[in-house]
Design goal:
0% strand; 13 helices; Mitochondrial carrier fold; mainly alpha
Length: 325
């Protein structure tokens, strides 16, 4: 899931000609669209690449009726068993399609978010920090992000991550899904993804901004505050939206064993059907399968994304302003 980028800028002193430290708020105000896109793309790729093995574990731990050989008690045990029984590279299967989608998806996301955030903040709270503006901007940007990422990350990636997956390559998975389920399969969980990501981003942005107000009230570039606030925001949002993530995983993977046990024919579709199926198979606890792995994944994931994004935005903008001065 992608992070946001903080608050509207506060006025700051002009940039010194000698390249002295810039106020982060001043950078936010003067940063270019291209910088948002480059910083966002790098942050997205690094976030998904570094945390991919844990994401693979999360997908498996959300299985409603896992194979006895794929029943894990914790994240570390799952990773260890995957490597020992299925090969060293097994936790990374599908990482290539994720990296391919993460770059452009996050570039578009951050560009859209920054533009909307500024416009809405000027209306709702000129010169100040509007949590409502941040939440709305992030939610709208999520529509664009998920339109790019849903086929790659959700459908193809998660099928490759499942235990005993019949797919051995990205291209093979794409061809098989297209042939047997049609083009619509690549967006079957799109509405579910949005239903999960919109509240996720709203909770994420609000929590991050509240943390920043306490840890970094002057809104300067401060790596430690971005890391800590990002980790806490990711953990809170991840835990709160786990039930939706379980339903999304079921729609993406079309878990055969689970569907067969309920004598469901064809392909499961729709949020209501997914919720009903999860409840029938696992009751209320079923909605929180994999919550530990999800939180463990999201905490460093959002911390990485925030720190990398803010660093590249700060670094790239500083270079541009120094050249101009």
């Amino acid at each position: 899931s992608p992070p946001g980028t903080g608050v509207p800028a506060r006025p700051a002193a002009p940039v010194p000609a000698d390249g002295a430290e810039l106020c982060h708020g001043e950078q936010r105000r003067r940063v270019a669209l291209g910088t948002h896109m480059v910083a966002g793309a790098v942050a997205g790729i690094m976030e998904h690449t570094i945390m991919y093995p844990v994401d693979s574990v999360k997908t498996r731990m959300q299985s409603l009726q896992p194979d006895p050989k794929a029943q894990y008690r914790g994240v570390y045990e799952a990773l260890r068993r995957m490597v020992l029984t299925e090969g060293f590279w097994r936790p990374l299967r599908g990482i290539d399609i994720t990296m391919l989608g993460a770059g452009p998806a996050h570039a578009l996301y951050f560009a859209c978010y920054e533009k909307m955030k500024k416009s809405l903040s000027d209306i709702l709270q000129p010169g100040g920090n509007s949590h409502l503006a941040n939440g709305i901007a992030g939610s709208v940007a999520t529509l664009l992000h998920d339109a790019v990422m849903n086929p790659a990350e959700a459908v193809v990636k998660q099928r490759l991550q499942m235990f005993n997956s019949p797919y051995t390559s990205v291209l093979g998975c794409v061809r098989t899904v297209h042939r047997t389920e049609g083009l619509g399969a690549f967006y079957r969980s799109y509405t579910t993804q949005l239903t999960m990501n919109v509240p996720f981003q709203a909770i994420h942005f609000i929590t991050y901004e509240l943390m920043q107000e306490h840890l970094n009230p002057h809104r300067q570039y401060h790596p430690q505050s971005h890391i800590v606030a990002g980790a806490v925001a990711g953990a809170v949002a991840a835990a709160a939206t786990t039930p939706l993530d379980v339903c999304k995983t079921l729609l993406n993977t079309q878990e055969n064993t689970a569907l067969s046990s309920l004598k469901i024919r064809g392909h499961l579709s729709g949020m209501a059907n997914a919720f009903s199926t999860v409840y029938q198979l696992g009751g209320l606890p079923g909605f929180f399968k994999g919550v530990q792995a999800r939180v463990i994944y999201q905490m460093p994931s959002t911390a990485i994304a925030w720190s990398v994004y803010e660093f590249f935005k700060y670094f790239l903008t500083k270079r541009v302003l120094e050249k101009k001065s």
